[in-house]
């Protein structure tokens, strides 16, 4: 409270003292007394009115009249004194001092009433935020529509596919894609009419396991156990088990003979050594076709 009063008094104390000298107060003490009376009275009136507003209490009419009158008097004093000092900037500075006093009153009232309340947006700010959200929603809808259209086939690609299909049908009928060229034969060429080659199948070759007769294992020699010393543990050696021989791989001679028979018959028919693909067309697997071709080359 005292800080606000000091600010109000300090704003126009000098101008009030100068005005007192002009109206006839020749003694310096009279000038200071006049200035203090006017300034302190105005400060007390302003702060009392602001305190009543801050406490949401009644502000009487005489207090409002006194406040307005003192404010007008101080404004006139400031503007007249400052005008004599500087005719251009003087009135402006006087009005600025009056505005500062009104601002001090409003600031005091706000600090004691609405300073702790949360901030609330004005209707204009709410309207601005709503328009921004609407614009964002429209942009999101546009993006979703573009993504939906992007998932559909491209129009240029559809036109190109239809054009290529018409050309293909025209060529299959024997016509030409260009009207000034001669017509061609109907149907597809032999390369496109041939049947695809069957995928090679791999046949598992049976295996015959031949086991050799197991040799009689020699009896383990009896080794006399040494006498165990006191405080030590002697382990008895165990005899090693006899190893079982691995089974030997035996080729399927019957399948090989049949493969060679087919390969020789095809070689006599062609007059040359057949290729692996020609042998596979005779029903041989890739393994036997390759093996039979190698055997024919060795002969």
Automatic annotation (TrEMBL):
<feature type="transmembrane region" description="Helical">
    <location>
        <begin position="30"/>
        <end position="49"/>
    </location>
</feature>
<keyword id="KW-1133">Transmembrane helix</keyword>
<feature type="transmembrane region" description="Helical">
    <location>
        <begin position="88"/>
        <end position="111"/>
    </location>
</feature>
<keyword id="KW-0812">Transmembrane</keyword>
<feature type="transmembrane region" description="Helical">
    <location>
        <begin position="61"/>
        <end position="82"/>
    </location>
</feature>
<protein>
    <submittedName>
        <fullName>Uncharacterized protein</fullName>
    </submittedName>
</protein>
<keyword id="KW-0472">Membrane</keyword>
């Amino acid at each position: 409270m005292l800080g606000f009063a000091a600010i109000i008094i300090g704003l126009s104390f000098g101008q009030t003292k100068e005005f007192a000298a002009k109206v006839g107060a020749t003694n310096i003490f009279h000038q200071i007394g006049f200035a203090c009376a006017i300034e302190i009275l105005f400060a007390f009136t302003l702060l009392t009115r602001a305190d009543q507003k801050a406490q949401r209490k009644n502000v009487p009419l005489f207090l409002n009249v006194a406040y307005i009158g003192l404010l007008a008097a101080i404004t006139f004093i400031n503007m007249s004194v400052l005008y004599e000092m500087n005719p251009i900037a003087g009135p402006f500075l006087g009005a600025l001092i009056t505005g500062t006093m009104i601002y001090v009153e409003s600031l005091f009232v706000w600090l004691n009433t609405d300073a702790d309340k949360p901030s609330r947006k004005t209707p204009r700010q709410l309207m601005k935020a709503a328009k921004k959200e609407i614009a964002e929603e429209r942009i999101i809808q546009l993006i979703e529509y573009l993504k939906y259209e992007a998932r559909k086939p491209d129009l240029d690609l559809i036109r190109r596919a239809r054009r290529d299909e018409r050309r293909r049908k025209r060529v299959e009928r024997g016509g030409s894609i260009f009207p000034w060229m001669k017509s061609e034969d109907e149907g597809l060429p032999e390369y496109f009419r041939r049947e695809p080659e069957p995928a090679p199948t791999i046949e598992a070759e049976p295996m015959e396991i031949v086991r050799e007769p197991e040799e009689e294992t020699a009896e383990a020699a009896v080794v006399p156990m040494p006498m165990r010393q006191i405080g030590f543990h002697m382990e008895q050696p165990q005899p090693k088990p006899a190893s079982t021989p691995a089974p030997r791989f035996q080729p399927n001679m019957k399948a090989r003979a049949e493969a060679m028979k087919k390969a020789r018959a095809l070689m006599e028919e062609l007059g040359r050594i057949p290729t692996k693909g020609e042998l596979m067309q005779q029903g041989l697997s890739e393994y036997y076709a390759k093996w039979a071709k190698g055997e024919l080359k060795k002969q």
